[in-house]
Design goal:
Chains A, B: InterPro entries: HTH_LacI, LacI/GalR-like_sensor, Lambda_DNA-bd_dom_sf, Peripla_BP_I. Chains A, B: One of its GO terms (molecular function) is transcription cis-regulatory region binding. Chains A, B: This is LacI family DNA-binding transcriptional regulator. The structure is a homodimer of 339-residue chains. By secondary structure, the first copy, chain A, is of the alpha/beta class. The first copy, chain A, folds into three domains: 46 residues, 434 Repressor (Amino-terminal Domain) (Orthogonal Bundle), CATH 1.10.260; 134 residues, Rossmann fold (3-Layer(aba) Sandwich), CATH 3.40.50.2300; 132 residues, Rossmann fold. Chain A has twelve helices and twelve strands. The termini of chain A are far apart. The relative contact order of chain A is 0.12. At the A-B interface, α4, α5, β2 and α6 of A face α4, α5, β2 and α6 of B. Chain A binds a DNA duplex (16 and 16 nucleotides) through α2 and α4.
Chain lengths: 339, 339
DNA sequence: TTGTACGCGTTATCAC
DNA sequence: GTGATAACGCGTACAA
């Protein structure tokens, strides 16, 4: 079923049929002709060939979504948020997983641009990321979300209020009486890791906690294994602590496992906190005190920004969107036991 | 950068360039010409336009992946399994979420076929599913996974050994001494729900447990809310039970919440079991006894089947692939307390 | 071994 | 208002 078939069936010319089937050009046609063409097109089950259309218009009505790993519970809600905005507008999404490997990222961006995606939503960017440059060199609009990239000219981004989250959590721990608060920082190559550890330093200083009392360990990935390793490193370090503020939930889960291995109870011996509020964290033991971020909404917001760019590449869209976060107090924090 | 540009730069004709850049037709060309063309193509950064290529060949090197909901932890590993096979072969995936709504399913299949996907992996099929017929009417190869559809001619599928899983779990409970075992069945519109409840009946009878001692409740969706509702219904029913075998993990989680609300302890008052072994189920309280299925491997297997079909639509591939399951005993099962 | 010519399905831009 | 034509980039039967 092609335009040609409909043309033959109705007796009109292909171009007339094309116009009748297009919302915009339809205005130049007699209402009667439009109706007739559309009816037989429907009857014959005509469906526009998006490849041919894209070849002609340079628009595929497809976007690329770049994420680190869909099995990480952080990302599926983001993907659904994106879909909830893009799908009603007629856009489909090609999703690729980078595993935070730069080479993979570059190749996958190639995969996307080869298929002529109209734009890219990038939730896997590193702070210094060549793939963004690559995308730009193809003149493909891009918005990052969850993380940001530091580049000139700037890339519009949608992130969470990392600083506020860390501040609230630190204040929460202080309220319980903690003065010796350790931090497991995330990878500094990611904006989330970097921003959270910077916020930790700033908030700690502002609250008058001594730097010497608040030891730090850096995780190389945002996962349980690294959380475990970093917690052990802190426990084996010279500085005692009563609370452990982790840069995300998975680090916290790993840290809790490590503390238990060392015979420490959470929260009675050490309080532990996370960040993100992955689902079913209320079912773990103890239910984890954490910071809730807006995953679905981040996807929505970024998609809306991209949509504006797709309609008009010169559109003046906000460069920075920072979504609010909420403290979720549960049971992994208690009053400190005297050291 | 098009073939035309390379042709101009090298002095050869477009078709010669096209051939030089294609693995298969290259054999007809002088080695020297091929080298020269490929070198300048590389230097000029040529990349084949997959749209134009697809328009010509009817192959987009893109497949469609239909799942119910990516935020359901069951599916991300499946998606990665698919990707692990398809991506190295040059295929990209368009992923769509049906939410188990038939109308949505139909529209999303349209989205996929419009974009000319070469094949579809369908993990969201209903037992009686019109979207599969729709796919077939477009002559697009399809393999279902996780679930199966009952259609003639049959659609190749990759599923888990549901019957074995249920049998093993029932035997496990019986070993602990349970004779009064309730079942929360999944939606019978899904092959997983139907096969598990059928297996429950068969295994129960084979083990000599009285049907009257083993009450049933049907969930309308595989989620916590329905698990909760069904558990309450069983508790309010006339038949007492000491164990509750749930058709999947999420139903079990909901059921445990319901039991607790009624002041019952798991596993001391009632043993509860799940199916699937979603990640971090070992972190919940109590750690859930369940059946582990091979999610990633299911994705891999289905992708390999589809790949065979993409190479040769007439390929003789196995109609049924049943992956092994493993019982994972944890702490949600104990010896029954006398009624 | 290389070049010619055409068509895939659509749409933009003419002319009438 | 409608029709004719060309072009998007590529692949391939056919000719040379």
């Amino acid at each position: 079923m092609t335009l040609k078939d409909i043309a033959k069936a109705t007796g009109f010319h292909v171009s007339t049929v094309s116009r009748a089937l297009d919302q915009n050009s339809r205005i130049n046609l007699t209402e009667d002709v439009v109706r007739q063409i559309r009816e037989t097109a429907d009857a014959m089950g005509y469906r526009r060939n998006r490849l041919a259309s894209g070849l002609r218009t340079n628009r595929t009505m497809t976007i690329g979504v770049v994420i680190p790993d869909i099995t990480n519970a952080l990302f599926p809600p983001i993907v659904r948020g994106i879909e909830s905005v893009m799908e009603p507008e007629g856009y489909a999404s090609i999703i690729v997983n980078t595993d935070n490997v730069p080479e993979r990222e570059m190749r996958l961006v190639d995969v996307l641009t080869e298929r002529g995606v109209d734009g890219i939503l990038h939730a896997a960017t590193l702070r210094d990321d060549d793939s963004i440059q690559l995308i730009r060199s193809h003149n493909v609009p891009v918005v990052t979300l969850n993380r940001r990239v530091e580049l000139d000219p700037p890339v519009p981004f949608v992130i969470n209020d990392e600083a506020l989250g860390i501040r609230m959590m630190l204040a929460h721990l202080a309220e319980y009486g903690h003065r010796r608060i350790a931090h497991i920082a995330g990878p500094v190559a990611l904006s989330t890791g970097a921003m959270r550890v910077a916020a930790f330093h700033a908030a700690r200083a502002a609250m008058g906690l001594a730097e010497a009392d608040c030891p730090l360990a850096y995780a190389e990935r945002f996962d349980e294994e690294e959380g475990h390793r970093a917690a052990i490193a802190l426990l084996d370090g010279p500085t005692p602590f009563t609370a452990l503020l982790c840069a995300n939930d998975r680090l916290a889960l790993g840290a809790i496992a490590a503390l238990r291995q060392r015979g420490l109870s959470v929260p009675h011996d050490v309080s532990v906190t996370g960040f993100n509020d992955l689902s079913s964290l209320d079912a773990v033991t103890p239910p984890l005190t954490t910071v809730r971020i807006l995953q679905f909404e981040a996807g929505e917001a970024a998609a809306r920004l991209l949509l504006a760019l797709l309609r008009d590449p010169q559109a003046d869209i906000p460069a920075e969107t920072v979504l609010p976060v909420v403290l979720v107090p549960r049971e992994s924090v208690a009053t400190p036991r005297p050291l």
